[in-house]
Each structure stands twice: as structure tokens, then as C-alpha cells.
């Protein structure tokens, strides 16, 4: 928040601030003959005027983005318990690592001999991620988890096609992230939904009834999206493998088990990891992330090309000779700068530190649950939550308020709300993931705020309905945004 | 090592509160056979100092001191210092997707502004809030065109960069998408291809992978006459000089954002941009930010048209994309605002002047000639009289000059791409010319 003046004042757009002729940029003086574009680009349709970009001095530019930052919540500002997002501290060490000139200044098409540092790092990272997941080989091209899902399902398809085995369906739990069915559709598969049982775990008998020779595979998050470990995972894997189908591990919740339980040991064939979750790379308001995909040996031939290898002479290289590869998924090599941050995170933690990490993540979630579930009961109380828990706010509906209102009130109490209305199988869901980097005091304060908001739902429901009132804007008219689409600035809006 | 702040007292009190005796005790409900004893076989944890020293050794093992004349979608443009300072602000850097708009107005407004500058660069009214990269942006645009036309084939220019052509094929394969290529001509331009009635989209690049400026208008007219859409992969600095593809009739304009404030960074993270006409807005992949008002009538911003996205529509979503490249998009917004319209024009003119000079100077060398005859602005292919162009590229690198990539197909196959940004000086061109002359002479 600004330290002076009207805190809720609107920040004008860059375009509102623009003044003709003002500019921040400087260019090196031309030490070659200038050329006339009309002559040099003879026959080419040139622009009459350059694009109408905003015109500002550099200080105005810096102030604009600084002021925008004041109007934005981040982990650095406060607690951010978004379930399924692992919003933990983003180490500045990792930022410093990625900013090293040797990494920053490397051209993507530099010869492998010039990229030995990055290639060695990626090779080590592949070995470590393989060790943590129980897999053998990686692709680093996927730029995010959903991109990894697409890659993984393409690997399923390539594997089955290579065996002359056309398969049509992917089975996905009803609690799954929306990316799972969307990825399956992009890969040309029909989606079959398997229900969750009364205890929040996959209904194994229902699953076994769904699995047949048309099943290409199953996508599963474990712990699942209600924060529970799928205790029957070995039986699930056996059911799929019995008919020649494969298992995909969605790594969204890997923070719960990293260093302790391995997807490969559970029977998964393909794993993606969300580097921006488990390995704490900053989410940047929505990205960039990275979604490396790890596979077992039998799926390795199909990985996107190229893959990083160590040659017999100890040097590292991109191996393009992958005749069974599904092809490329990225125009360069993937979000390498994010993977460098992950490498720093893993090197710092080591195997011992990762076990501490997952252990404390699970402890923090269970601790908050122990403080609030008498007023916000667990959606599925039969099993111990892992790194996150899902409560239901169903009880406050009698006061004419909903979990949305509870969440907006939390904002006024100084806390970013948890994920809400997901997963879809819990009524009025509230999904809390504190992560391991939060202190006991923060968790206590958050728990108290949640309890206060629940109490106010009965005592003063208007306070919830009106919330938030302490933010730069109050609740926004999302319906109007969709009806009267304004998705860019124009001068007649001013 | 870890970043958890728990004291021993905290651990004891918290474990007691949850009725457990140790951290390990929180995992005992998991089948024992799935809990390997001991810790994973990774190096032992180490201090921040030791960690960064190890990273510094890796970084130093890269060789980045060669003068960069390489292109192929990534260019050595200057990145203004303000970008790192601003996108490094923790409130932006460490925020998540703006699901709670009241506490995310900074990022939402920045994305609204980003959509506006992308709209200006492309000449189309609607931009999304970024995609992974240029390659996947082309693939997503192809999907949009297929949905719009209810057709399932795509014709790509072979003067589209090779990685992007591969990405389009990879995305298309599971959907049985017919994918074919039309060869560019001796001038480096893509001829208007004959189109059958199953073609959803034609894809060209502007300028293309040979650096040559395409006739977008002719391609748009031909595509539309066949009921297909034209997708243009745009190198964004070029519109400092060239007409925007949208103004020339392109239906979908996408591109690789690397030239816009991203740095080289081994090609990632950068971002992809995508713009379309208003009538295609409901088919667009990923997030879009819209302007609205709050309860007090104040202007604010939200993610809008959410019913296209995977978390709402699941298998019927327009794409599976969730996490995108938001912070990279904000960096691009800062870069474009720093440049301004005149700065963008000056930048493009500087590239043009330096590229024209370099092409003239380098083709004075015996055994070096332009591999295509068409107009170019910052990048061009050189035909070298050598047995193995890749070996020549390696030799040039050893001499301190990075060029490339080597053209993979068509009349200019085997030619070596040379790119000039505003940073490449006349002296550096002389150095490259000397090295090139020596290498070509030694080879012949």
C-alpha cells in the first residue's frame, strides 16, 4: 500500500499516462550507414506508423509498476494457503543462481560444447528427479504441469501405437484437476470418470469395473486433490497393468511425499513434477513454471527429442537420434531458467532436507486442521490429511452466506483465502495448504482468523457479504466483464 | 537444509496437537512397502554459500563470450535494467494466478496492459495473457482454426522454423490432423499454396525462418478464398517497420516473445503470444483479463470468459493450459513501454541497417553469398562454399563468433543464418568477416 494519500485511488494505465514524444529507451549510435527502409525493403508493405505503444519516461514506468506491485498479494507479502499450489517461500538463492551470466547469456542454439555447464546441470537434475520419483529418464521441454500432462499422455499413445494397440480412453477421478481431462481431450482420448468413495479415495471396485482393453491409462494425483493418500494405489496399479494400461502421476501434490514415497514404487509409469510448486520456483502471477516429465525405461524411447545424455567421454549433449520420439513440445529447450532454480533448491536441501520439507509440510497442514476442523469439518474425515486438507463450509449456508463470502472476509482479516470450490466433490470446499515454510505463529493467526470469520457468519453475515473493504477495489462485477468485453485499452474508454 | 522455521519447541507442540510423535509418524498410514528406509540418494544438503558456489561453477562451464550473430527465434537484443528490478518485486514475482482479484489488481492490470500492447503489435483486437512459447502458440492457433472451420488439416510453410513445425506435428498427431508443408522459393518467400477444402489453416512466419519478409496479404486472401484461416508467426520487433499482420488480413497472429525483454537464457523461460479477431475470442486458449467495475463503481480487472478454461470446462476446454508465462509477459510489457513507438521503430531500423551492412560486407568474401534473394530486415542466410556448414559454424564459434542455425530444408538448405541486433557493431562484423574468410578459404 502507498505510504501517502488515498490508498484506494485507481492506478491509471500506461496508456492513460502516455504523452506523445516521451520515451525511456536509448540505442547505441549507428556505426554503419543508415538505410531507407522503403529502399531496403522494396515491395514490402511497411507500417505507416509504428504500433501505438505507451510513451513514458523511465521514472514514470518504474513508478507505475511499483504502484501495481502495491496492489498485489504475493508470498513475500503474507501467508498464501492456496490448496494444490504449494505457495511456499521462493528462495532468493535460486533467483541469484538463475541470474548468473553464464546461464543468462547462453543462446538456445549455442553448440553443446558451449553449453556444458547447463547440460551437466540438467543431467544431474534428471538423475535426482529420477531418484525422487522412481523413474529413469526425463524430458525438460514441458513448460508447466499441464504441458507435462499432454506430454505424458502422448507417451501413452505412442507406447500403445508402437505395440499396434489402439486404445481410446483415459480414466480420471471425479476429484481431478481440470487439466487432466483437458489434456486427455487434447491427446484425442475419451475421458471416463471414476467416482470417489465415501472416504475420499478412489472407489477401487468402481475403477476395476471400468478398466478394460480399451483403457489407455489412468491419471492420478497422490495424495489426491482432497489431500489424502490413495492407500490402495498398488491394487489400482495392478488393475491397470493387468490389461496393459498405464498410470500417469500428476505431480501437483508431490510436496507431500517428496523424499519419502516414490511414484515409481507405487506403480506409476509416467510422472510430471510441478517445479513451481514442490521446488519453490516463483509462480510470477501465473507462470512461468516448469513441468519436467519422468518415465520408466519402457516409455523412454518415446520422450520428446532431444534428451540430455552423457557421452562416454564424460561430456554432455542433446541426443536428437530418437526415432520413436513423439516429437517436440517446445520451440527451444523448455523453461531452463526455472529448472536451474529447482537444481539450486535440491542441492541446498539434499535428501535429508527434502524429508524435512515434506514432513513439515504435512505437519503444518495437520496442525491447522487440528485448530479449525471443529468449525470447518473435513470433507473426508476418515483418513489423515497429507500436505493439505479440504474442509466444507456447508454449515455457514444457513446464515445466507457462502464460502466465497468467508474467503473475502479472510482478506479483510489479512489473509489470502485458501483455494475454494475445488475439488468439485466437496460441497462449499475450502482447500488449505500451508506449506512447510510457515511458522507456527502464522498458522495460529490464520486459524484464529478462519474461526473468527466462521463466527461472524452467524453473528454478522453482512460483514462477510460486504467484504472485502480494505482492498484497492471491492468485489468486482465479473458478469459485466464477461458481457461487456473490454480486453484491451482504447482511447475512447478513457 | 530446509526453509522451515520450526523450532524444536514448535515441533513438539505441533506434533502433540495432531497426536503424533514424530514427522515420520505422519506417514505410517501409507503402506510400509511404499516407504523405502533411509533418505533418497541425493547429495547431502549444503549451505546457501556452497549451493551458489556449485551453481557458479556450472554457469562458468558455459561459454557465452562468443559474439552473438545467432538467430532462429532468439536474438541478442539489449534487455533494459528496469525489467529485472520491476519483475523481481516480490509482490509480483511471488504471486499466484489471480484467482482473488481484489488482492491481485496489480498483476491483472499489467496483463490488461500486456493484452493491449500485443493487440497493437499484431494488429488484432484480442490477445490472451500469454502461452508457453512461440512453438506451442502456433500449435494452439492451429487448434483454434480447426475449431473455427470444422476442418482438420494444416499447411505450413517450410520457411517456418523447424522446431515450430515439429511442435505443430506433435500436437496434431493424436488428433489425426493432416499436416503438410509448402516449400519456399528461391527468393525465400512462401508461394501461395493450392488449398483443398479440408485445410483449416495456412501457417507462415513474418519475417520467416530465412529472415525474409512474406507477402501476408496475398496469403490471407488465398486462405480466405479457400475457407481457411491464415496464421502468422510474427517476430515482434519487425512491426517497428512492417505493417502488422492483422492489418494485412491474418486471422491469428502468434509469436515467440524472446525478443521482448527476455534475454537469451538458453531459450527459456520466454513466452508465446496469441492474438485473434473478436469473433474468435471464445475459442482462445488460456487466460484473458477483462476490465470491469467494483461495487463502488471503481475500475478493476478480472480474469474473464472463464467458461473456456480447463478448471471449468474440463475435457471441453479450448486448451489444457493453466500455468502460463505471466511474469515473462509483464517483462515484455515493460520492455515495450520502455521502447515506446519511436523506440521500437528505431530498434527495428537499427537492426535493418546493421543487417544490410553485414550482408554486404560478408558477401564480399569469396565463397560467401546470400542463399535467398528476397527482402530481409535483421536476419539472413549465407551460402558458404564449404563441405560441411555445421563444421563451419563450429569453427566460427571457436573463433569467437556464434552464428546459426543452419537451414534444414528447401532451396537454402545448408545455408547459415546470421542475425544482427542493435548491439552488433561494425567492428564485430569485421571480426566475423575475417574469421569467415579464413574458414571458407581453409575449407576450399
Strand order of the largest sheet of chain A: 1-7-6-5-4-2-3
**Tally of DSSP β-strands of chain A:** 12
The sequence of SSEs of chain A as H and E is: HHHHHHEHEHEHEHEHEHEEEHEHEEHHH
How is the quaternary structure best described? heterodimer
Segments of chain B where pLDDT lies below 50 for 5+ residues? Answer: none
| Separate helix tally of chain A | 17
Q: Summarize model confidence as the mean pLDDT of chain B.
A: 97
Task: Supply the number of helical segments of chain B.
Answer: 12
**Class computed from helices, strands and strand pairing of chain B:** alpha/beta
Structural class of chain A, by secondary structure, is: alpha/beta
Distance between the termini of chain B: 59 Å
Helix content of chain A: 25-40%
Neighbour order of strands in the largest sheet of chain B: 2-8-7-6-5-3-4
Uncertain runs of chain A: none
Mean pLDDT of chain A: 96
Q: Tell me the greatest interface.
A: A-B, 206 and 210 residues
Q: Looking at the structure, what is the overall shape of chain A?
A: globular
Please explain how this structure is put together:
The complex is a heterodimer of chains A (494) and B (444). With 494 residues, chain A is of the alpha/beta class. Helices cover 36% and strands 10% of the residues of chain A. Chain A contains 17 helices and twelve strands. Chain A has a seven-stranded mixed sheet, sandwiched between helices. In chain A, strands 10-12-11 form a three-stranded antiparallel sheet, with helices on one face. In chain A, helix 10 links the parallel strand 4 (215-221) and strand 5 (246-251). In chain A, helix 6 (116-133) runs parallel beside helix 13 (336-372) and helix 13 crosses helix 15 (440-459). The two termini of chain A are 25 Å apart. With 444 residues, chain B is α/β, with parallel strands linked by helices. Chain B has helices spanning 8-18, 48-61, 81-87, 90-93, 105-122, 134-149, 162-172, 216-225, 310-313, 326-362, 389-398, 426-443, and strands spanning 67-68, 126-127, 153-157, 178-182, 199-206, 229-234, 252-256, 272-276, 289-293, 299-303, 368-370, 379-384, 401-402, 416-419. In chain B, the strands form four sheets. Chain B has a seven-stranded mixed sheet with strand order 2-8-7-6-5-3-4, with helices on both faces. Chain B has a three-stranded antiparallel sheet with strand order 11-12-14. In chain B, helix 7 (162-172) links the parallel strand 3 (153-157) and strand 4 (178-182). In chain B, helix 5 (105-122) packs parallel to helix 10 and helix 10 (326-362) packs across helix 12. The mean pLDDT of chain B is 97.
